């Protein structure tokens, strides 16, 4: 499944917020990502149209199965890569920042090999 980096970031952010607070609204995503609420609202409209999220009458945003699959995969790559980078001596802050960039470009094959090599499975 191929999806753009920005979309992965949005979906990962929704999952992180859901895990942290239980309820996700456009304003929460805007605050977390540093974007305007209208920008988030426009993106959520596109995500609804493409089947990644649902928004109820109260404005609560939930990931569909399709959106959840992408969000979980992106979050896993982020977490595993962050731990691997720290194992090889990268500081925690830098590892987290670098993992956020790497997670969007690494192939599934390379990611699986990293996980296996660093006992992250």
Automatic annotation (TrEMBL):
Entry keyword annotation includes Lyase: no
Coiled-coil zones: none
InterPro entries: DtxR_MntR_Metal-Reg, Fe_dep_repressor, Fe_dep_repressor_sf, HTH_DTXR, Iron_dep_repressor, WH-like_DNA-bd_sf, WH_DNA-bd_sf
Domain HTH dtxR-type: 1-64
Keywords, alphabetical: DNA-binding, Transcription, Transcription regulation
SUPFAM superfamilies registered for this protein in UniProt: Iron-dependent repressor protein, dimerization domain (SSF47979), Winged helix' DNA-binding domain (SSF46785)
UniProt entry tagged with the keyword Nucleotide-binding: no
Record-level Gene Ontology MF annotations: DNA binding; DNA-binding transcription factor activity; protein dimerization activity; transition metal ion binding
Domain of life: Bacteria
UniProt similarity note: Belongs to the DtxR/MntR family.
Protein name per UniProt: MarR family protein
Organism name: Lachnoanaerobaculum saburreum F0468
